[in-house]
Amino acid sequence: MAVHCLRTPDGTVDYFVALIQDITERKQTEEALRKSEEQFRSVIEQAPIGMVIVRSSDGAILFQNERFTQLFGYTMADIPNIQDWWQKAYPDEDYRRAVMEEWNAAMATAMREGADIGGKQLNIICKNGVARIAEVTGIVIGENFLATFTDITERKQAEEALRENQELFSLYLLHSPIYTYIKEVTPTESRVVQASENFYKMIGISNQEMLGKNMTELFPPEFAAKITADDWDVVSRGDVLKLDENLNGRNYITIKFPISLAGKKMLAGYTIDITERVQAEEVAHRMADRWAILYRAGEEISASLDSEQVFQAVYRAVRQVMPCEDFLICLYDEVHHLMGGEFILENGNRMDAEPYPADRGLGGHVVHTGQVVLLNSPMQISASGIKFMPYGSGVVTSSVLAVPMQLKAKTIGMISAQSYHSDAYTTDDREWLEILAGHAATAIENASLFKQAQLEIAERKLSEEALGESEQKYRRIVETSIEGIISLYKDGRITFINQQMAAMLGYSIDEMLGKKFESFLPEDQLSDHYAQMELRLQGKSSVYERCLLGKDGRRHWVLVSGKAILNIDGEPEGSFGMVTDITDRKQAEENIQKLNAELEKRVEERTRELRDAQEQLVRHEKLAVLGQMASSVGHELRNPLAVITSAIYYLKLVQPDADAKIKQYLGIIDQEVRNSDKIITDLLDFARIKSVDREAASVSGLIGQTLERFPVPQPITVTLDIPSDLPQVFVDPRQMVQVLGNLTVNACQAMTSAGMLNNGQLSLHSHVQNDMIIIMVKDTGMGISPENMNKLFEPLFTTKTKGIGLGLAVSRKLIEANGGRIEVQSEAGVGSSFTLYLPIYDPNAVRVTVRDKEAK
After folding, report:
1. Are 699 and 730 spatial neighbours (Cβ–Cβ below 8 Å)?
2. What phi and psi values does residue 447 have, to the nearest 5 degrees?
3. Among 362, 537, 586, 620, which residue carries the largest CB count within 10 Å?
4. Do β-strands 190-195 and 761-769 pair in parallel, antiparallel, or remain unpaired?
């Protein structure tokens, strides 16, 4: 309804006009449209697939149903427009670009033509990062667009799994070593549906050529008919069939079983080539038969003690296993160096042959080399160089197998099988015959020993009678002998003793018989007794002295001549001894030895006294001469040395630009002059008594002066350990610097001569010990040998090529003159350590000393 006002000219409302329109149908249409929209929305909301409505003009997402959120996890807030959807659903840039181009093109076509967008399979990344595969379709609705999403992830995975299974099956058919096939079977025909590619190896036809063909087209008629009948039997009965088959000389095992596909009766099967296994089984059976023959022959041979029976058993066994038109068993006579043909068959006929020298023929070759001979052709026999000994018909031998019969690494003969045909023997034959030869060698040796034992038994019966007579004669000799006679079993028990032996120790025979011999020995004789028994058990004889204890406890010295007692097999089983009493002689020898020892001791002591006196006399004479010479020549030697020193100084002054060689030689002259001056100083210092002007001096000052006056050569490392609070020492500083200088120079020379200059280390250490100051000079030089340690401080003793051996003697003299002492420790190859003990400075003691000096 619409109402309008009608006004007068002055504007006053005069009338109202009302227009009323019937809108019943429009309202009904709007209600119907609302209901339709609600139904449409309900359908979309409850749809089993994801749905999204997009506004075409700006790409805004107007609606998405619950299923869409369930599938991908995105809400309206996550993807308010289509651009957000592209970014999140397709994070891979290349893939997103391809999807967008394809989708936009399809949507443009659909908007233009009013067509729908067909299903497109897209990979969509969910909000949780999981990838899903969806089939997406599109419908144009006015200015909007409805997209549907159907989840086909599981279907695609199933399709992929099926594809992989099919590919695996194809690979199996392609590469399987088993012949695999599937057939479609009727009562009259069996046709190939699938077959592995390796059938080409079996029948020379590829699997592609086999497809669709029946058995008659693939195999010989009789074999094809059998296969067809077997196939129908499997399909009709529903049983599994296992067959052993042979085709073209190959052995196969086949397994067939029924399968069904879409109601169609089919057959699957596989065939395995077992030719190698069958051949191996046949070889194994043959080998088992061979070893059974060997076992029976070994039992028969081992049980026989007759050589001829052994030969026959060996031949019967060999004949069952390998060809042997000719057969030989030859034994080696080591004494006469001959080969004997004990058992020879030529073409089955037994022959006799004379022995021949063992350095000839096949037998000689095998015995001397100990090696098997295996030759399988006349050419090989000729090339071997072995000269075969002819025995009969002289038919050409084409194959030879000869093995040595060995016993305890010793060859006693040969077994040989020979054939008139080439390639008659194998390595298996060789191994088999070697084992049989080992059995034969043992059996032949046993037969020989048995025969020998029979002869020995007969000889022993004859000798036992003679032995009885001999025993009586020798018993009388033993009983009346003036020597002691004794025999011991290997465990030391006395098994026989004569009257003289028992009386020698004051026992009766019965008291000693059966006792251990060591019970009659003092303890200091036991070890040698056991050693002698060990010699007897080794079959060795010896003569030695032994001390025995008599019944009264007195010692008796005897001379024993011991021999081994051998059993019937020649093995030692005891000891036999002839015993002579030498007690009186031993006592006399002991007295003489005591006198000799006492005399040698006296002579040695007297010799040592004379040697010491002589050395002391020589040393005194040297020192006397040294004192006289030092005072007389010291002045004359120093004057020319001073002139030389001045000349060197002048030459260095006037020739400052002299070349390096001249400077080197001037330096050498200067150093040698200094060495000569030091020798003169040492001589004068040692020869005369010098006054000692002691005063307080610091240890660090003394060491500093020493290192300044006697510089250490490079690259020896100097290590100083001088505490700052160390008390002063009471010494003559000049003399102490001389002493420390001697020790420092000696240390450096020791390290230089030891070849350790680069690794040399000189250490100077000082500390307080009781009422003395310790100064230690230590080096890493060659060290001092033990035999030189006692001579170290003797005058004129030196091991150096330069010097006269007075440095250490003068040093000790100066140290002792200053109230101290010097000690040395050294290890050869490690180094030496000299320790000075010097008195500590005491002001009160110094004043007393000064007054004493002034009084003097």
Report:
1. no
2. -65, -40
3. 362
4. unpaired
C-alpha 373/C-alpha 399 separation (Å) is 10
Amino acid at 504: M
Cis peptide before 715 (omega within 30 of 0): yes
Query: d(Cα 657, Cα 474) in Å, to the nearest integer?
Result: 111
CB contact at 8 A, 376 and 367: no
Do residues 284 and 426 lie in contact, with contact meaning Cβ atoms separated by under 8 Å?
A: no
Cβ(422)–Cβ(400) below 8 Å? no
Average pLDDT of the chain to the nearest whole number: 82
Q: What angle do CA 776, 781, 784 make, to 5 degrees?
A: 80
Span 723-742, average pLDDT = 92
pLDDT for 605-646, tens place per residue? 877 777 766 766 665 566 556 655 655 555 566 677 777 878
Handedness of CA 87, 90, 96, 101 (dihedral sign): negative
Instruction: Provide the pairing of β-strand 761-769 with 717-721.
Output: parallel
Provide the 10 A C-beta neighbour count for residue 628: 11
At 182, is the secondary structure helix, strand, or coil?
strand
CA nearest 793: which of 778, 808, 813? 808
pLDDT at 232: 92
Task: State the angle between helix axes of 307-321 and 275-303 in degrees (0 to 180), rounded to the nearest 10.
Answer: 170
For 214, residues 6+ apart whose C-beta sits below 8 A from its C-beta are 189, 190, 191, 192, 224, 228
The C-alpha atoms of residue 757 and residue 731 are separated, in whole angstroms, by: 33
- List Cβ neighbours of 242 (8 Å cut-off, separation of 6 or more): 253, 254, 255, 256
Interatomic CA distance for residues 148 and 137, integer angstroms:
5
**Terminus-to-terminus CA distance in the chain, angstroms?**
163
pLDDT, tens digit, 9 for 90 and up, residues 663-715:
777 777 876 777 676 666 666 655 554 678 899 999 999 999 999 988 888 88
Residue 356 CA from chain centroid, whole number: 54
Say which residues have a Cβ less than 8 Å from residue 606's Cβ, sequence separation at least 6: none
Q: Do residues 372 and 404 make contact, with C-beta atoms less than 8 angstroms apart?
A: yes
Q: Which of 287, 295, 229 is nearest to 256 (CA)?
A: 229
The DSSP bridge partners found for residue 167 are: none
Tell me the three state secondary structure of residue 59. coil
**Residue 399 burial (10 A CB sphere; 0-12, 13-18, 19+):** buried
What is the rounded CA–CA span in Å between residue 547 and residue 555?
Answer: 6
Q: What percent of the chain has pLDDT over 90?
A: 19
Looking from the CA of 234 toward its CB, the CA atoms found within 13 Å total 27
Cα–Cα dist 751/749, whole Å: 5
β-partners of residue 493 are 516
* Residue with tokens 């056991």, as numbered in its chain: 530
Reply yes or no on whether the pLDDT at 392 is more than 50: no
Amino acid at position 266, single letter: M
Please, how many CA atoms are within 13 Å of residue 201, restricted to the half-sphere of its CB? 15
3-state secondary structure string, 198-247? CHHHHHCCCHHHHCCCEHHHCCCHHHHHHHHHHHHHHHHHCCCEEEEEEE
What are φ and ψ of residue 497, in 5° steps? -155, 135
Residue pLDDT, tens place only, 317-334: 998 989 988 888 988 888
Q: How far is CA 169 from CA 172, 173, 266, in A?
A: 5, 6, 18
Q: Which positions ≥6 away from 210 have C-beta within 8 Å?
A: 181, 192, 195, 199, 218
